[in-house]
Amino acid sequence: MAARGPAGTRGGSTRFAQFKLVLLGESAVGKSSLVLRFVKDQFDDFRESTIGAAFLTQTISLDDNTTVKFEIWDTAGQERYKSLAPMYYRNANCAVVVYDITQASSLDKAKQWVKELQRQANENIIIALAGNKLDLVASHPDKRAIQTADAEAYAREAGLLFFETSAKTSENVRELFTSIAKKLPLDQAGPRNPRAGGRGGVELRSEAPGTNANGGPCGC
Amino acid sequence: MAPDKEKTGIGFGGLRTKSVAPPQQQTRTDNGIITLRYEEAIPAKPPIAVTVAPPARAPIDIHPALRRPKSSVAETDERKRDSGLAPTTSSKAREGSVTTVDENVLGVKMDFDSSFQSAITPQSPVPSTPTPQVTRLDSVGSGSISRWRKPGSRKSSMPKTPRTPTSKSTPEEFTPISTPIPTESLIDEEFLESLSFSKRGSMMLGGKKAVNGHVRTHGGRRQPSFSLLASPSIKILSDDLEKDSKKVRSMYEQGIGLDWEDGKYAPMAKRANVEEALAEEEPAVSNGHLRPNGHVAYQRPETAMSVRQEHELAGGIEDWEDIDGHDVDRYGFIKLQRKLSRPGTPEPRPPQRVSTVLQQASETPRKQRGFTRSPSSAANSTRGTFKRAPSRKVSARSLNTVASNSSQRSTSRIRAAANRLPGNRDRRWMDEAGDMLTLPPGLADIAEDEEGGRAVEGLKKKEWERAEKWRKMAKVLKTGKDGEGMEFEFDARSPKLIERTWKGIPDRWRAAAWYSFLNTSAKRRKDSPSDESIIQAFHKLQDASSADDVQIDIDVPRTINSHIMFRKRYRGGQRLLFRVLHALSLYFPVTGYVQGMASLAATLLCYFDEEKTFVMLVRMWTLRGLDKLYEPGFPGLMAALDEFHKQWLDGGQVSKKLTGLNIEPTAYGTRWYLTLFNYSIPFPAQLRVWDIFMLLGDSDPSLKPTKDRPFCGGLDVLHATSAALIDGTREILLDSDFENAMKVLTSWIPVKDEELLMKVTKAEWKLHRRKRV
């Protein structure tokens, strides 16, 4: 089921796969910062709030002959933008749900997102839970509001990948995305189709939240 | 009981007695006071804030949000509560019992949310404070909700009669204050100890970010239909939210600085500052109180920060620490090249959202078109082929279309020549739209400084001339003394004015013109509240709590923080921005605060003081369709994007291409419309769009709003701008795959030639008008 920008062999034995990834989580937990670190290896202390969603891509090599490209949709975190989220997570192959380890409420919100994804999104979606702002507790351990073990236990129970990350120091950022890539079904990907129209991913009409619960994001 | 006496009692003594009133009052015989069982209590009449300080003349339109009980009383009380000195319930009950000022002035019926019932648990007074009155009052009022409810809102069978005597008794309850009232309670030691700041400057209380994401306890937000002056959906905040809101607001009120080194608040030193500030209390210095137009000044308790640091200029709203005049462009943005010095503060940086393709396009010299312009046409073929741009394949599509020729040489020579014919100007602008990404000829070589350095002498002179023309068009409405607070009016229907607005309002006239344009729109509508009432609302709302305060606080420091006004945490422009957004979130309770609004408010704050900014925002909301764009669930935004899709993109080449790629305006248009392009184009270009949007953004009265066209043409300027941006990136888009097209469309679009952007916008706008007729 399917990398949506279908993948396949390129040259001899190399594989290339493209996947849609969506970031979700409460406002100001560091979604955009994680993406910015991952894609451009930069960090801003005061990143402007995301309106609607931002679109970025990044390619990583898993090994000598496997390349994975992420098509990343970074969403707005404020509750009020929640109604737009289905447009972005529809047909996503993977999701990173982010919370802030210094803020208890943000994990609750993350759990809601996980629930919603598991109910509404692509049924084979790979979800990773990321507890961001690890740098803050490094210097001030008392700032931690969510214990690693608690979040980890939850992640295990819900079947999620789990990392504590710091977009600021870049700790675990690459690991997070790499481990997602490794979990994606590279083998089932089809041949690459460079300028394909009709790729299932961007019909951003919002009417029906969570259509396409039956997997198979891409018809081709 | 003379009414005015009653007012005095309420305003100045009545409530304050709360904590000091002698207990014997409780047993006093007073026919006016009746005892009710708690369950029988009817919702108290909210005290209309006007009672506190009656304005010189009666406010004509009181905004619904104001109709809640908000008074100086409430404020003193709430301060106490924050300091742990005063119990919540009692004070509210008290207020409820005091006010009967008038019968349902607003004719507003309010929903009584049954969930409040449970919230009415009478609280026991906070132990440390003797509050003898509390008990008595609780028996009269109806607990904490009373404050928020209007009589009769609850389908109660209680007759209203008993209420009058209750209120009459008020003056008699007046007892002079005998206990010092803490005015500074929010920054007591205990509070300071629990206070710290995260690295990004968010306020942390006891190690936690001040609550984020609390559920609103009232469903008012979700009311689907929103008619501005008719539905005051009063939100009742949970205690936590209320507390958070207070604390956040107090930070801005005190303007407490941060030690950015480690993101922690340094209590001692700064606190001394604040105390001085409080001691000084010099209203003239506090920048929140600019009153250029001589409006009735609301004397708020002067806790507003007033100790200014020496580098805080322009009335304290600009922070010039480490910045020289030449580091800042004419709009107040700190130039990108500047090297950082002050640790911790946001540093200016190049916009990071520029897609690579766009960046390259904007760096390539402008191509030569046809037979025109300069002789150095040798360079003409280099552009168009962005060297590292996505490979250009010559496809069937690109062979027979104008736009794809453009990927080689933009426009064919014949067409380029034809475009120079008198009637074809608009087409020419649209054909050449791609040039908006590069500097106009003549400026390209001298503009080493991308965003700021266009202040070339010739342009300056031109601007002076244009400013002079605008001066002649301006009609003076009002002059203050020494020329202060002048107000101007422009004839919004004058074709000359419209023509000149398309060409750009000279910056010095911008504020006056924008204001006049919206004022003209407001006058056309009978239901528009006056400036005075909006400003009054603004000040009143500062004392109310908003569920959105925490979110606003998160967003304020990350809103155009490379601007000289918005650098300093909790102070200067950030403080004004917070106050304006705070008031806005309450003034339009259905919409509340939504991310994206901050960029609108910040833009206006570059031109207006906070009061006028608020007036402008209110007018933009009601008269320029922003209230619909930000409607919960975004049905208005979706309708706008749909309108753009169907009526503007209109099956053209780019549209076909995008449809083929499955990219709809919803994928990229959200931020264009919600931030009115603040997120997507450079500030000078954004201002130009706003110039014309302020002038021509009225909805067409001849059209009836339907579900499909809720804006009735009001967004045409925005649509035309969107269309122009698509024209400007057309060559790139036509050559893009899904990924590149998405990147271009969601990117910052580095429009360097805003003249051309506006020419294309105008051409699109005219074309659409013609189609519509």
UniProtKB/TrEMBL annotation, chain A:
GO terms for cellular component: endosome; plasma membrane. Residues 187-220 are annotated as: Disordered. The keyword GTP-binding applies. It holds the Pfam family Ras. Gene3D superfamilies: P-loop containing nucleotide triphosphate hydrolases. It comes from Hyaloscypha bicolor E. It comes from the Eukaryota. SMART domains: RAB, RAN, RAS, RHO. It is found in: Cell membrane. One of its GO terms (molecular function) is GTP binding. The keyword Cell membrane applies. This is GTP-binding protein ypt5. It is a lipid-anchor. InterPro entries: P-loop_NTPase (IPR027417), Small_GTP-bd (IPR005225), Small_GTPase (IPR001806). NCBIfam families: small_GTP. Keywords: Cell membrane, GTP-binding, Lipoprotein, Membrane, Nucleotide-binding, Prenylation, Protein transport, Transport. GO terms for biological process: protein transport; vesicle organization; vesicle-mediated transport. Belongs to the small GTPase superfamily. Rab family.
From TrEMBL, chain B:
Residues 504-697 form the Rab-GAP TBC domain. GO terms for molecular function: GTPase activator activity; small GTPase binding. Residues 1-31, 58-102, 118-180, 339-427 are annotated as: Disordered. Residues 155-169 have a biased composition (Low complexity). Residues 22-31, 86-102, 353-363, 371-384, 397-413 have a biased composition (Polar residues). SMART domains: TBC. InterPro entries: Rab-GAP-TBC_dom, Rab-GAP_TBC_sf, Rab_GAP_TBC_domain. Residues 385-395 have a biased composition (Basic residues). This is RabGAP/TBC. It comes from Hyaloscypha bicolor E. The lineage of its organism: Eukaryota, Fungi, Dikarya, Ascomycota, Pezizomycotina.
